[in-house]
C-alpha cells in the first residue's frame, strides 16, 4: 500500500500541474465518502488554480487559489498525470491501470488530467482536510520529535511496531517501512515502546532515518532488505535464521528470530 515514500513520489509528479487551472473535477461515491456528495468535489474544485504541492505523511495536498485539496490513497491508490504514474507499482496493489478504476480526477486548462486510480475503492478526496490527527511528518522528523514519539503517558506503552504505525504520533510510516526500520535496528517489534533503552533508541533513530533515505533512493517502501524473507517459512536475508510473523498493530509483521531480540 502507499506509504510516505510512495506519496512523496506522487507529490513530485503533481508538481507538473502547478500553475494550471482546474476546468472541471469529478469523483465517484467511494472517493467522495468524506464529502457531502460526489458533486461537492466538482463544485469545490472548478476554477481553482493549483499553486503548490505539499504532503503530511500519506496525505497529498494541493495548495490552490482557494481551499487546499487533499488526496488519500488507501491500500491501492495511485496518482496519474497524463497517464504517467508516480511509481512503477505497489507491492500489494496494481501494476496495470484501467479506466474503470479511476475514482476521481481534475481536468486542467492545458488539456492534462490528474487522476486518482484505485481498484480497492479506499482512496479519498477531501476539501480543506484537517491535519489535527496527524503527527509530525516522518521524512522531516527531528531527534526531539522521535524521542517524543516514544514517550508514553503510563505503563510500558504499545509494542514499538504499533507505535511506529500510529499516524497521530508520526505521520507516514506504514507496515513495510516499520518492519524494515526494526529489521535494521535489530529490535523485536513486540517490544513495548517504553522498554527501549538508550542504545536501542539510538539504533532505531538511525535505522528510521537511514531506511527512509535508502528506500527513497531505491524507489519505494517495498524495496527493503528484509523483503527477501517476508513470507511464511522465510529466512532472514542477513543471518539465515527463521523469520517470525504475527499481527501487531493490526498489521502482519515479520522479523528475524535471531538478530531482532
Number of strands: 11
**CATH topology-level name of the largest domain:** N-terminal domain of MutM-like DNA repair proteins
**Physical arrangement of strands within the biggest beta sheet:** 1-7-8-5-6
- In which range does the helix fraction lie? 10-25%
Provide the CATH superfamily of the largest domain. MutM-like, N-terminal
Describe this structure in words.
It is a single chain. This protein is α+β, with helices and mostly antiparallel strands. It folds into two domains: 4-127, N-terminal domain of MutM-like DNA repair proteins (Alpha-Beta Barrel), CATH 3.20.190.10; 138-256, Helicase, Ruva Protein, domain 3 (Orthogonal Bundle). The protein is built from six helices and eleven strands. A five-stranded antiparallel sheet has the order 1-7-8-5-6. A four-stranded antiparallel sheet has the order 2-3-4-9. The chain has a two-stranded antiparallel ribbon with strand order 10-11. A hairpin with a 2-residue loop joins strand 5 and strand 6. Helix 5 (175-185) packs across helix 6 (198-218). The longest helix has 21 residues, at 198-218. The mean pLDDT is 94.
Helix/strand layout:
Blueprint: H1 4-14, E1 22-27, H2 38-45, E2 50-56, E3 59-64, E4 69-72, E5 78-81, E6 84-85, E7 102-108, E8 113-117, E9 124-127, H3 143-150, H4 160-165, H5 175-185, H6 198-218, E10 243-248, E11 251-256
Antiparallel strand pairs: 1-7, 2-3, 3-4, 4-9, 5-6, 5-8, 7-8, 10-11
Helix pairs in contact: 5-6
Task: Quickly describe the structure.
This protein is α+β, with helices and mostly antiparallel strands. It contains six helices and eleven strands. The relative contact order is 0.14.
Amino acid at each position: 500500500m502507499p506509504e510516505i515514500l510512495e506519496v512523496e513520489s506522487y507529490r513530485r509528479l503533481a508538481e507538473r500541474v502547478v500553475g494550471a487551472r482546474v476546468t472541471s473535477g469529478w469523483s465517484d461515491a467511494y472517493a467522495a465518502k468524506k464529502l457531502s456528495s460526489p458533486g461537492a468535489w466538482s463544485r469545490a474544485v472548478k476554477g481553482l488554480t493549483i499553486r503548490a504541492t505539499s504532503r503530511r505523511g500519506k496525505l497529498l495536498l494541493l495548495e490552490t487559489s482557494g481551499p487546499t485539496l487533499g488526496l488519500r490513497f488507501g491500500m491501492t491508490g495511485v496518482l496519474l498525470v497524463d497517464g504517467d504514474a508516480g511509481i512503477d507499482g505497489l507491492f500489494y496493489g496494481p501494476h496495470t491501470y484501467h479506466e474503470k478504476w479511476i475514482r476521481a480526477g481534475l481536468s486542467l486548462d492545458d488539456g492534462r488530467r490528474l487522476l486518482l486510480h484505485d481498484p480497492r475503492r479506499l482512496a479519498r478526496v477531501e476539501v480543506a482536510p484537517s491535519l489535527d490527527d496527524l503527527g509530525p511528518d516522518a521524512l522531516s522528523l527531528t531527534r526531539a520529535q522521535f524521542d517524543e514519539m516514544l514517550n508514553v503517558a503510563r505503563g510500558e506503552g504499545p509494542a514499538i511496531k504499533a507505535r511506529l504505525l500510529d499516524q497521530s504520533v508520526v505521520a507516514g510510516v506504514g507496515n513495510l517501512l516499520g518492519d524494515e526500520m526494526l529489521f535494521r535496528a535489530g529490535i523485536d517489534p513486540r517490544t513495548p515502546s517504553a522498554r527501549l533503552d538508550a542504545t536501542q533508541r539510538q539504533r532505531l533513530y538511525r535505522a528510521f532515518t537511514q531506511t527512509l533515505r535508502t528506500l527513497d533512493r531505491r524507489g519505494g517502501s517495498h524495496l527493503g532488505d528484509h523483503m527477501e524473507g517476508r513470507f511464511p517459512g522465510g529466512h532472514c536475508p542477513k543471518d539465515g535464521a527463521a523469520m517470525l510473523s504475527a499481527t501487531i498493530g493490526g498489521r502482519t509483521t515479520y522479523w528475524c528470530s535471531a538478530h531482532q531480540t
